[in-house]
Write a structure and sequence with these properties.
Oligomer: heterodimer
Distance between the termini of chain A: 63 Å
Structural class of chain B: alpha+beta
Family (chain A): Belongs to the TFB5 family.
Number of strands of chain A: 3
Protein name (chain A): General transcription and DNA repair factor IIH subunit TFB5
Helix content of chain B: 40-55%
Main location (chain A): nucleus
Number of helices of chain B: 21
InterPro entries (chain A): TFB5-like_sf, TFIIH_TTDA/Tfb5
Shape of chain A: elongated
Subcellular location (chain A): Nucleus
């Protein structure tokens, strides 16, 4: 019987894929969200984590900037 | 440059979209007849003049006879336009053949206009009453100042120093679509179309505002046909001449008050009389927008180190720059800023795209750098685009992963089906797994059920 799993198909560049994989690895077993690592630049994850991944990336991006005080 | 969403159609398209009864009312005014005639395409003008002194319907066939085969599309456009504006009416005779006749009101008024010439309902006032009329330059400066003040109010009411008399409800109407407010406490933000609005040239902006003003006329208890008639009439007045306000009706007087806030007219008061002076903005109103592509002089210089110098005294320019750049200091005629990653992220969050920013910078390049190619340094434009794409590094799409196919045949069939629908995202033929877009889940289920049987 064919089995269908609902999820999110993510395509991104290699560093971003690594970032997401690393994020997944840091979580406890019960909260892991990657269903399948398809290849270097494609992942298949649980469908409810879109917001979490985006905010983590935004946080990562902001950690790399410095705004000169006015 | 992305497609501008705010369509700046011209005045006549608006007139054409009026209901028939309103249009007939408009044609009572011979100035409107003339304005309509002016706005027509050349061939349509010819037809109107041809039919002007003919009182009986003319068959469509006889008009087509003089049309060369390759001019037929132009003929069609002209006829359609005339019918759309109800300048010409189409009737069918007993043999079901199309006959054309000019709108009798329009015809009568235009005949009168040709023979007697146009006489405005009001004459310019003699110069011994209006002592201190502004010169044309002063008037132009006044119009620009009023308009900028209005725009400044539009995008951020707190920044504008001078107050306008436009009621806040009117302002809300203008701001609709240009600004969005996510939260009551938060100040409203400029939307994507708002930014595009600021990038348009003055005539297009003016037209957008006037269109909003007209479409909301009914809510204010002003008949939109009256308003259009008055605005068209206004465009026939002479720039810089004074006209007495006591020639206006009450409604027109309140309209001129609004228009003076937009810089279309200047109101002045003498000892006894008061008068209004139309500015260039008003007289340009009925000109179709395509004709007026006057380039404004640019003011922005950008260096390869992302520093931005804007030679401008205008607060409005400063506000526009603030949308995507970090303004560091302001001198009386110079704004100095820098384009930073943070300032751009703020702009991107507000829905402004990198392309819009770049084209704004290019269009407003200072004459000194405008002759250079490229006018904005390449490393800056590239970096702006890179920063934008940096925001979209991860793409997510709802999908379903299918595995445990019973046989290779079923797998292949499912694969082909998904590919046909353009929904196949990824496949692994060794382990027989595929990922398919979520939108065709029901179709996939159906095909798999059929395979099983």
């Amino acid at each position: 019987m064919v089995n269908a799993i609902k999820g999110l198909y993510i395509s991104c560049d290699v560093p971003m894929a690594q970032f997401i994989i690393n994020m997944n690895a840091a979580l406890p077993q019960s909260q892991k969200f990657i269903i399948q690592v398809l290849d270097n630049t494609h992942l298949f994850v649980r469908s409810d984590v879109a917001g979490m991944i985006r905010s983590a990336i935004a946080e990562f991006r902001e950690a790399n900037t410095y705004e000169k005080p006015a | 440059m992305p497609q501008v969403k705010i369509v700046a159609r011209n005045f006549m398209d608006m007139v054409a979209s009026l209901p028939a009864v309103k249009l007939d009312m408009l044609y009572d005014n011979s100035f409107i007849c003339e304005a309509i005639l002016r706005s027509l395409p050349p061939l349509a003008k010819k037809y109107v003049l041809q039919l002007l002194y003919i009182d009986i319907p003319i068959s469509a066939k006889s008009m087509e006879e003089s049309v060369l085969p390759d001019g037929f599309s132009k003929h069609k456009v002209a006829i359609d336009r005339l019918i759309q504006l109800r300048v010409m009416t189409e009737t069918f005779d007993r043999k079901k053949e199309a006959m054309y006749q000019l709108n009798p009101k329009f015809q009568f008024n235009l005949q009168k206009h040709i023979v007697h010439g146009g006489v405005l309902p009001r004459e310019p006032m003699p110069s011994n009453i209006t002592v201190r009329l502004p010169s044309l330059e002063e008037l132009e400066a006044y119009a620009v100042e009023q308009w900028e003040c209005f725009l400044l109010h539009l995008i951020s009411s707190s920044e504008a120093g001078k107050t306008t008399n436009i009621s806040s409800s009117m302002m809300k109407v203008f701001q609709r679509g240009l600004l969005s407010q996510r939260d009551e406490r938060e100040p409203p933000r400029l939307t994507e179309s708002g930014f595009q609005f600021l990038l348009m040239d003055t005539n297009a902006q003016l037209w957008y505002i006037i269109r909003e003003y007209i479409t909301n006329a009914e809510e204010r208890g002003v008949d939109s046909a009256d308003l259009i008639a008055f605005l068209l009439e206004l465009s026939f007045h002479v720039t810089g001449k004074a006209y007495n306000t006591n020639t206006l009706t009450d409604i027109q007087r309140s309209i001129t008050k609004d228009l003076s806030d937009l810089g279309l007219v200047k109101l002045q008061q003498g000892r006894k009389e008061s008068w209004f002076i139309p500015t260039k903005l008003a007289t340009n109103l009925s000109i179709s927008l395509a004709d007026t592509t006057s380039r404004k002089q640019g003011f922005i210089v950008i260096e390869t180190n992302f520093r931005l110098y804007a030679y401008s005294t205008s607060k409005l320019h400063c506000e526009i720059l603030r949308l995507f750049a970090r303004v560091e200091y302001q001198l009386p005629n110079l704004i100095v800023g820098a384009i930073t990653k943070e300032s751009l992220y703020k702009a991107f969050q507000n829905g402004i795209t990198a392309e819009q920013i770049i084209s704004f910078l290019q269009q407003n390049a200072h004459p000194r750098v405008a002759e250079r190619i490229p006018s904005v340094p390449e490393n800056v434009t590239d970096q702006i685009r890179l920063w934008e794409s940096d925001l979209n590094r991860v793409e997510m799409m709802p999908a379903h992963l299918y595995d445990e196919f019973p046989s290779r045949d079923v797998f292949e069939a499912a694969c082909d089906f998904a590919r046909e629908y353009g929904g196949l995202l990824w496949e692994d033929s060794k382990q027989m797994r595929i990922i398919v877009k979520a939108d065709i889940l029901t179709e996939m289920k159906e095909i798999l059920r059929r395979q099983k049987q």
